Amino acid sequence: MSIALQKTLSLILLIVIGIFLQKKLQNEDQKKGLKTIILNIALPAMIFVALLKIEINPDLLILPVLALIFNIVMIIITKFSLPFFGIKADSPAMRTLMLLLPSLAPGLTCFPFIVEYLGDDVLAWAALADIGNKLFVLVLAYLLAMSWYYKNQKIKAKSNGQKVKELLLAMVSEPINLVILVAIGLLSFGLHMESMPAFLSSSILMMKDMMTPLVLIFIGIAVVFKWDQLRMIASILTFRAGFTFLLSGLFIWLVPMPSEAAVLLAVVFPQSAVSFWPFAHMSAVRKLEYENDAQKENPTFDLDLGINVLAVSMPFSTLLILGVFTSGSYFTAPLHILSIGGLLVGAALIPKAIQLIKNADFSFDNLREKVLKDSSVE
């Protein structure tokens, strides 16, 4: 058995343990507590250690820009592709998916596997890239959610300046982003983990070691199998994954990559599950609508659809990322990545195309009626 496969099976085992713990941790406060430990202690410690092991390179500052460009490209693609899946334009479902699908949550579904398979250096690159994604999910997604709310409810838009300022302050004060800033500051003075007092570095390393098992167990606990809308969501997520593979393959083909690890990062980072932050913005909008009884009947977002997308996206992305790492060097070739992307896009679109053809009326009477109608118009 290969080392990669053994490692994958050990990681899957932790997810299975989490599934078995679902009955023990049914309380939402318990799940929230576990997630808080991951996002505010274990993950920041892991990123802090990873960053302090790299050398400052101005070229790495392009990573947040690339991540933000990815978010923007995906929101455009989402807008024009969703009608093919039966999602009506300017509907609550359309607005919900347009906020969720372009967003990324690498902390829970990508970072643990990056550190296990690629190491701390590549994790540091991923953490820097996530700054651009955070700008999208915290600021741009909020602005979009509020603008759609004002438009849908026909309310005169208010100034968002103060809200944006609060979000930027929250972004800076978030533990993950805070440790990135502190680590960059320490590196600029030439300080590394070895420069710290032994008791402090030991504590940080112990917190860092909690990350992988806690995240995998949390994924198992958080998996919720809701079969309503599951087919449509699975189809849309398959399309998202396929198109993302196409973007990654094209990028790797056109841009020289420094190492095989950098190639794999470009493949797996965009495959992260959708972020919870856009859903939080949608929930805030729903609260505003419920405060005004007249707005209840015309919701801006479909929160039931949103929660189902979040539930399905986490295990879906986890399996994809594990599949990439388990396949060895297969996903380091641009042609292979483009091929897999094309297959996934086809798997998502072909059933829809067949359904459209079956539902179309090609009978002689219908065609004759259409010809006569066109003739009368002329």
List the helices and strands and how they pair.
Blueprint: H1 3-20, H2 28-51, H3 62-81, H4 92-100, H5 106-109, H6 111-117, H7 120-152, H8 161-173, H9 175-188, H10 198-209, H11 211-222, H12 230-254, H13 260-268, H14 277-291, H15 303-326, H16 334-359, H17 364-377
Helix pairs in contact: 1-11, 2-7, 2-9, 2-10, 2-11, 3-4, 3-7, 4-15, 6-7, 7-8, 7-14, 12-15, 12-16
Account of the 3D structure:
With 378 residues, the protein is mainly α. Helices cover 74% and strands 0% of the residues. It contains 17 helices and no strands. α2 crosses α7 (120-152), α12 packs across α15 (303-326) and α12 (230-254) runs antiparallel to α16 (334-359). The chain starts with a helix and ends with a helix. The model has no long low-confidence stretch (mean pLDDT 81).
Sheet bearing the most strands, described?
Answer: none
Order of helices and strands: HHHHHHHHHHHHHHHHH
- Tally the helices: 17
User: Strand share of the residues?
Assistant: under 5%
Give the % helix.
over 70%
In short:
The protein is built from 17 helices and no strands. By secondary structure, it is mainly α.
Key traits:
378 residues, single chain
